[in-house]
Queue: 2 jobs
Job 1
Amino acid sequence: FRRLGLRGMKQRLLVVANRLPVSANRRGEDHWSLEISAGGLVSALLGVKDVDAKWIGWAGVNVPDEIGQRALTKALAEKRCIPVFLDEEIVHQYYNGYCNNILWPLFHYLGLPQEDRLATTRNFESQFDAYKRANQMFADVVYQHYQEGDVIWCHDYHLMFLPKCLKDHDINMKVGWFLHTPFPSSEIYRTLPSRLELLRSVLCADLVGFHTYDYARHFVSACTRILGLEGTPEGVEDQGRLTRVAAFPIGIDSDRFKRALELPAVKRHINELTQRFAGRKVMLGVDRLDMIKGIPQKILAFEKFLEENPDWNDKVVLLQIAVPTRTDVPEYQKLTSQVHEIVGRINGRFGTLTAVPIHHLDRSLDFHALCALYAVTDVALVTSLRDGMNLVSYEYVACQGSKKGVLILSEFAGAAQSLGAGAILVNPWNITEVADSIHHALTMPSDEREKRHRHNYAHVTTHTAQDWAETFVFELNDTVAEALLRTRQ
Ligand code: ADQ
């Protein structure tokens, strides 16, 4: 901002993401009720100084009629949100199909779908077409609202084709793209049939960001190996044009968690939980119910721990809160039944008349209940098989006051790079290793707990979501300004 002389001026920022940060419920022909979901991204962007941000995205509902669309657009405008209307067919092909069935598993090293391989291959082209059409629909809405000088920040694997659509429309648009998932090794990425088009599109952005240096490196390798371009310390160069590629690790709004812990309702909740689990150590898992989160592996590791440490029976409880997602996808339904089956078996095996070792909830918790749970927990278990960053680990650390609880963290979560020195790092596939880590965490001397917690707490409270968003927008402005200087020289 300083370099562009923008300090003191509000710069317009258009944030484009698949989903708007609201849930919309239709209450009548032309009446909608909206609830803003106060996720990390929302608070991150609210905290960016000198920026006037608007969101563009899908509201998550099908609105086929014009009256409904007009009413929703008007209601959303008050929340600084602009809708992209996607019909059921495109949602099915683009969102459920290409995004969730192809890109999501591939980027998390689960490969292209194995089951029903032929059907997937046959559907692939139509799903990719729908993906491009959907991205073009997002771009059309951006064009309608774009003013010269705006910064456009595209988010995630849903919108990899968007940078190309935007730059084709106006080469001077300032476009940044950030990936919230891992970018896999180029050997995995190159199996994607549409690998060339997507890489070329992302390279149309001025700045490309990832959570970790490794993901950025994988992306640059994909560009050099698959497109034959030149990687430089700054990014990727194609015929004299540089796309900057860098790591921007996300954080959380740690103050929001600290403030919540002071609220009487949260304190009441903490007291209730403390009484409820008095005499037992509490271990916690909070995840979306997704295969990448390694929930069955985590529960099996806990079983192994109970098996090998019978003296801990009745003295420890695992609370696993798993919010269901993508419930219409058969693989996710299968995962839910699998988790229920394992939990039932372990509770039958190790439970007593008065207590069970695992409390498993298939639901979302409200923010205050979540903060209270984080605060009373002795050990948090994050065992993702792959995870872009994993904000649950950050939230847990932010809510630990006097307890100085221990974080067991998968080495395959991006967070391992920032919280690795304070956490116990594990390979979630190695159930014996995780079981041993549970024992280590539960018996850890207080000075070691204190030291580990201090390290992580310092990181979480100084690398916040606001810093992340501010740095990205600053770097994007800077990158464009430098490119302009280069062309003038
Ligand atoms: P997610 O895969 O959704 O995000 P994560 O970073 O852990 O994963 O964030 C989940 C959020 O949902 C957290 O804020 C958590 O509190 C909340 N949550 C999860 N389960 C919940 C429950 N049962 N009840 C209430 N809240 C719950 C994607 C990537 C991550 C990356 C983020 C941000 O997959 O790797 O860290 O984006 O970039």
Note: The chain is about 50% helix and 20% strand.
Job 2
Amino acid sequence: MTNLNHDKEVTASVHSSKVKATSTEQSLETRIPRIAIVGAGFVGSTTAFALMMSGLAAEIVLVGRNVRRAEGHVNDLRDAEVFSHATRVFVGDFSDCCSADVTIITAGVSQSGQKSRTEGLRETGAIVHGLVNDVCLQNPRGILLIASNPVDVLTYAAWKWSGLPVHRVIGSGTSLDTSRFRRRLAEHYGVASANVHAYVIGEHGDSQIPVLSSARVAGFPLDGFSNELGMSHSESSLARIADQTRTAGVEIIDAKGATYYGIAAALVRIVRAILRDEHTILTVSSRVPESMHLGDVSLSLPSIIDRHGVARVLPVALNNSERVALESSAKAVQTSIGALSEMIPI
Ligand code: NAD
């Protein structure tokens, strides 16, 4: 197990001078829960709605480039207040992010755009670079939660650009993929997804690894659970579930142009773990501890999430082919980090 000790405040070596305290800061203990959402597109606005329905935040700040559109979302959200939870929802700017417990970055380019991978990386990289600087100038204490894609590359870059301790820069990573995987396994066995313990690790993207070897249902390995149910253990069915998990996002985008309900729920789940100091294990992206020998990279592994962000990154029991796949996933993310750093210094 690798402990990312909060007290040591492991920081990126650069840019710490950019992080300045503001007079409006309050201690983590006394302030009311405020969540800032930067980017008011599909993901940002749906996350605001999911957050409002959750009742977790007293204040939700929406920061959008198109202010009129953001105001439209805010007025629409306020119409839901009487039916949900008293929440102050407002359009803000970066100065309103100053006391946010968590700032969620959802700005980016449309998921259905026809841009090349490099062009998409350059464009979203430039957007997130600017936003991270603006947010961190105002809010040196909160947690940065990155949803913009490619999320692992941008989580790594945001950590470097921000100068924040490693545990306070989190990417939504494969939290969404893990939920897709668990639901499909649950359907396969005819049980509730809450009874399936399984993880998708690595890149949130093509090289992700749905880990079958250590997946458990009600404490049983998958072959053992099949035996209990009197059903045959079908490796090909499980391989199909892993494939469907990997391609689920693309299929939704093909059908409706974007994905946003699942990611919004995943983001709210991560926020809940933080605000309520849950010590919940979620597959989020963060800079991988050196002891895991995966290189200088951010990707998803099961991680304990508490009030301070990522408290620990946990290893996963893998078979040989899964370990090889994880190493190659790390290399794929590293290659993209290299490509981004040639366009925008990291
Ligand atoms: P969208 O086009 O609907 O919204 C993007 C928003 O970002 C737009 O409203 C745009 O105005 C805003 N924006 C751009 N530059 C900005 C800036 N400098 N400041 C403030 N706002 C700015 O796209 P979307 O569907 O909401 O997706 C947003 C991002 O989330 C994309 O990168 C997408 O790939 C990613 N995403 C990630 C996951 C995941 O699992 N991590 C899932 C779905 C989408």
Note: Confidence is low (pLDDT under 50) at residues 1-26.
